[in-house]
Design a protein that fits this description.
This protein has about 140 residues and is mostly helical. The protein contains five helices and no strands. About 75% of the residues lie in helices and about 0% in strands.
Length: about 140
């Protein structure tokens, strides 16, 4: 696959994954804040804990979906013979661990690097989202 096509496909998948991340944040965030603002929750640490876990779970789900998108793409483009290999490589690339025990051929390297860019960007979004949720919920616990 040529460099231009790798960049085009990689950018497209990065954008698709960003949409998944933003969709889940915009779906879950307002609902969490709405539920947390209810008067009966303000005195319940357990219920606030559940809301924080829900926010964290939503981010885990978002990242898992994105890794599956990358794995399916690697498999579909013939980069790996099995879905197991494709998923493993997607996880290692997305999280920027880069073990190097499985590598892409020369015609897919640029495309594969977009998985790492995706992970970096969407982990940043997750961090900002979770910080915003925690910042919003902390006063409801009666703490400064």
């Amino acid at each position: 696959m040529g460099m231009g096509l790798q960049i085009l496909l990689g950018t497209g998948l990065l954008f698709l994954c960003a949409l998944v991340q933003i969709w889940l944040v915009s779906l879950v965030g307002p609902r969490l804040i709405h539920h947390a603002a209810r008067p009966e929750l303000q005195a319940s640490r357990l219920k606030l804990f559940v809301l924080i876990c829900a926010a964290f779970g939503a981010m885990v789900l978002a990242h898992t979906i994105q890794v599956w998108i990358w794995a399916a793409s690697f498999r579909r483009l013939g980069a790996f013979e099995t879905l197991n290999e494709a998923f493993y490589f997607a996880v290692v690339s997305y999280t920027t661990l880069g073990y190097g025990d499985i590598t892409l051929g020369e015609g897919m390297r640029i495309f594969g690097s977009f998985a790492a860019i995706t992970g970096l960007l969407t982990f940043g979004v997750s961090t900002a989202f979770l910080l915003a949720v925690l910042t919003r919920l902390r006063p409801m616990l009666g703490e400064p």
